[in-house]
């Protein structure tokens, strides 16, 4: 234990980001969810997590090695690297279409990257990035004395 443990965030536990419709900024529910209790969501690690930091360090090392070999990068390549990183931080999901159909696609790095890199689903990527970077989501509740 350290003297600053009481200041540490819970970055090693993924957070659940409820996916909001861009049409009305409300959660997306399955059409058979009459009680509206199980919205569409993505679970993701904090951008401050050990995993996120390692992925960032690995990406920087790879880019430095590529640059040393004379490689240059396009904006699209840099975006794809960020989508890959976010996909690797994604741990689970419940995806629901705008018409209320549950998408039964397993959460994999490849599937997550496909969603994050598709411009038609930019709202999902943006909400997931905001959730992963929102430190309030990873702040533990105060402990009573």
Question: Please, could you describe this protein's structure?
Answer:
- Helices cover 38% and strands 12% of the residues.
- The protein is α+β, with helices and mostly antiparallel strands and 145 residues long.
- It has one domain (10-138).
- Strands 1-2-3-4 form a 4-stranded antiparallel β-sheet.
The helix-and-strand class reads alpha+beta
Runs with pLDDT <50, length 5+? Answer: none
Count of individual helical segments: 4
Domain module count: 1
| Helix content range | 25-40%
Largest sheet: 4 strands, antiparallel
Mean pLDDT, rounded to whole units?
A: 89
**Which strand order spans the largest sheet, edge to edge or round the barrel?**
1-2-3-4
N-to-C order of helices and strands: EEHHEEHH
- As a percent range, the share of strand residues is 5-15%
What is the CA-atom radius of gyration, in angstroms?
A: 18 Å
Amino- and carboxy-terminal Cα gap: 18 Å
Question: Using DSSP, what is the number of strands?
Answer: 4
Shape: flat
Descriptive key words:
alpha+beta; 4-stranded antiparallel β-sheet
Structure, briefly:
By secondary structure, the protein is an alpha+beta fold. It is 38% helix and 12% strand.
